């Protein structure tokens, strides 16, 4: 191995001399390209896209001009901290974590960072434990992809967050056709079977997930199959079944637009109180935290809201943090994003029963944001080339300052 590395390094050191100019059809430009940008005589460097320019027949030698529509936003980080390490050592949190997805685990450069438990002490599967993945047909369960993430977490000494059991999205269509009288048993069977399968492996479950409970702004209940058939009882049914299936797992309701005070946060507080009064198990509230650069309030706004929940004797967690911007990224936006990340993380640090922070994937390469919000992106602390952005230092500062 050492011999191979030495050979590889000495081979690399020869490259600039061996390939001074790109050959015809060879790469000569593009984002991240560090090779030659001039081409052999008779060809010129032709722009194909932001990531690739190539030598093509022409006359004379030409230097490439790459028109980039996105910026290489990494390398603004100077922090030497490792985020899970400082989350635990400096902020007394259980973990700093990331979401991930099965298709990403074949990307070796991505995995090399994800599996480092000094950086990430916790993993959440972004899709593979959801209903459409685990029970695609009535009574037919599939755990292959969920198991892959669970094994990954175990192999790397990382906590696993189960995500999720009852959500109105990513429900297979058969669920909507279940006769009303059977919806309760379908829900209970699903929760029981999935939670039992992962019993002993999951630190906490997002039992009921975002928007299942309340519409985003007004705190009213969302109309969908479980609510329509069971009313608000579907929440207590799901929580009760989850507790019976794995008494050790923390049971969460996870939602968005509840990170700071407002109608929805108040409605959620009232729901927790009602569940507790009815002796329904509830251990925590997940604050999704899909936020927008420049619109993130000071840490104090999160702290006072988080404390309303922890005052009820439950924990909170920041479960899906990302902070998106309107593209293209600029140094000013990246600096603001750093401040925004710092504020959220500092808030979790300040609240003893905020147990940890999870980012909704660590890299812009795999963020859900650009495909959902047109013209927006750059929401993660690592750029699409897996290079740390200033936001990384914001997180580190949030845990340490
Ligand atoms: O698996 C199919 C694949 O077979 C198909 O070829 C492809 C074509 O579009 O779609 C694939 O499914 C996609 C799935 O992600 C897996 O990649 C869905 O279209 C896509 O809608 C789905 O998006 C997920 C989204 O939840 C669904 O609402 C995102 O990856 C996931 O990050 C996102 O996560 C949610 C949390 O669960 C709850 N909170 C909000 C958060 C962001 O929306």
TrEMBL record:
<dbReference type="InterPro" id="IPR035971">
    <property type="entry name" value="CBD_sf"/>
</dbReference>
<keyword id="KW-0624">Polysaccharide degradation</keyword>
<keyword id="KW-0858">Xylan degradation</keyword>
<keyword id="KW-0119">Carbohydrate metabolism</keyword>
<feature type="domain" description="GH10">
    <location>
        <begin position="80"/>
        <end position="398"/>
    </location>
</feature>
<dbReference type="GO" id="GO:0030248">
    <property type="term" value="F:cellulose binding"/>
</dbReference>
<feature type="domain" description="CBM1">
    <location>
        <begin position="20"/>
        <end position="56"/>
    </location>
</feature>
<feature type="active site" description="Nucleophile">
    <location>
        <position position="320"/>
    </location>
</feature>
<keyword id="KW-0964">Secreted</keyword>
<dbReference type="GO" id="GO:0045493">
    <property type="term" value="P:xylan catabolic process"/>
</dbReference>
<dbReference type="GO" id="GO:0031176">
    <property type="term" value="F:endo-1,4-beta-xylanase activity"/>
</dbReference>
<dbReference type="InterPro" id="IPR017853">
    <property type="entry name" value="GH"/>
</dbReference>
<dbReference type="InterPro" id="IPR000254">
    <property type="entry name" value="CBD"/>
</dbReference>
<dbReference type="InterPro" id="IPR031158">
    <property type="entry name" value="GH10_AS"/>
</dbReference>
<dbReference type="Pfam" id="PF00331">
    <property type="entry name" value="Glyco_hydro_10"/>
</dbReference>
<dbReference type="Pfam" id="PF00734">
    <property type="entry name" value="CBM_1"/>
</dbReference>
<protein>
    <recommendedName>
        <fullName>Beta-xylanase</fullName>
        <ecNumber>3.2.1.8</ecNumber>
    </recommendedName>
</protein>
<keyword id="KW-0326">Glycosidase</keyword>
<keyword id="KW-0378">Hydrolase</keyword>
<dbReference type="InterPro" id="IPR001000">
    <property type="entry name" value="GH10_dom"/>
</dbReference>
<dbReference type="InterPro" id="IPR044846">
    <property type="entry name" value="GH10"/>
</dbReference>
<comment type="similarity">
    <text>Belongs to the glycosyl hydrolase 10 (cellulase F) family.</text>
</comment>
<keyword id="KW-0732">Signal</keyword>
<feature type="signal peptide">
    <location>
        <begin position="1"/>
        <end position="20"/>
    </location>
</feature>
<dbReference type="GO" id="GO:0005576">
    <property type="term" value="C:extracellular region"/>
</dbReference>
<comment type="pathway">
    <text>Glycan degradation; xylan degradation.</text>
</comment>
């Amino acid at each position: 191995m050492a011999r191979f590395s030495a050979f590889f390094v000495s081979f690399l050191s020869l490259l600039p001399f061996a390939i001074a100019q790109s050959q015809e059809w060879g790469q000569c430009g593009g984002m991240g390209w560090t090779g030659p940008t001039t081409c052999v005589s008779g060809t010129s460097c032709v722009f194909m896209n932001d990531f690739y320019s190539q030598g093509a027949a022409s006359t004379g030698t030409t230097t490439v001009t790459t028109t980039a529509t996105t910026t290489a936003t990494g390398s603004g980080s100077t922090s030497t901290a490792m985020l899970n390490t400082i989350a635990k050592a400096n902020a007394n949190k259980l973990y700093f974590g990331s979401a991930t997805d099965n298709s990403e685990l074949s990307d070796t450069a991505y995995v090399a960072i994800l599996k480092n438990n000094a950086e990430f002490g916790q993993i959440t599967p972004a899709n593979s434990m959801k209903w459409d993945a685990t029970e695609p047909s009535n009574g037919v369960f599939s755990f292959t992809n969920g198991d892959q993430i669970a094994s990954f977490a175990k192999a790397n000494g990382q906590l696993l967050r189960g995500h999720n059991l009852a959500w109105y999205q990513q429900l297979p269509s058969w669920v909507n056709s279940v006769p009303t009288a059977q919806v309760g048993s379908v829900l209970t069977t699903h929760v029981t079977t999935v939670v039992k399968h992962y019993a002993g492996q999951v630190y906490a479950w997002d039992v009921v997930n975002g928007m299942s409970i309340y519409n985003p702004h007004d705190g009213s209940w969302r109309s969908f199959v479980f609510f329509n058939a069971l009313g608000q009882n579907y929440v207590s049914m799901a929580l009760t079944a989850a507790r019976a299936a794995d008494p050790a797992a923390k049971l969460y309701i996870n939602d968005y637009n509840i990170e700071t005070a407002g109608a929805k946060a108040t409605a959620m507080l009232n729901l927790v109180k009602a569940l507790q009064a009815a002796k329904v198990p509830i251990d925590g509230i997940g604050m999704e935290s899909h936020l927008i650069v420049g619109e993130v309030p000071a840490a104090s706004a999160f702290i006072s809201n988080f404390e309303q929940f922890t005052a009820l004797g439950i924990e909170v967690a920041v479960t899906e943090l990302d902070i998106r911007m309107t593209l293209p990224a600029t140094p000013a936006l990246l600096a603001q994003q750093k401040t925004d990340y710092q504020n959220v993380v500092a808030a979790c640090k300040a609240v003893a029963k905020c147990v940890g922070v999870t980012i909704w994937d660590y890299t812009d390469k795999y963020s859900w944001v650009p495909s959902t919000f047109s013209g927006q992106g750059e929401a993660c602390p690592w750029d699409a080339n897996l290079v740390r952005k200033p936001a990384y230092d914001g997180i580190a500062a949030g845990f340490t300052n």
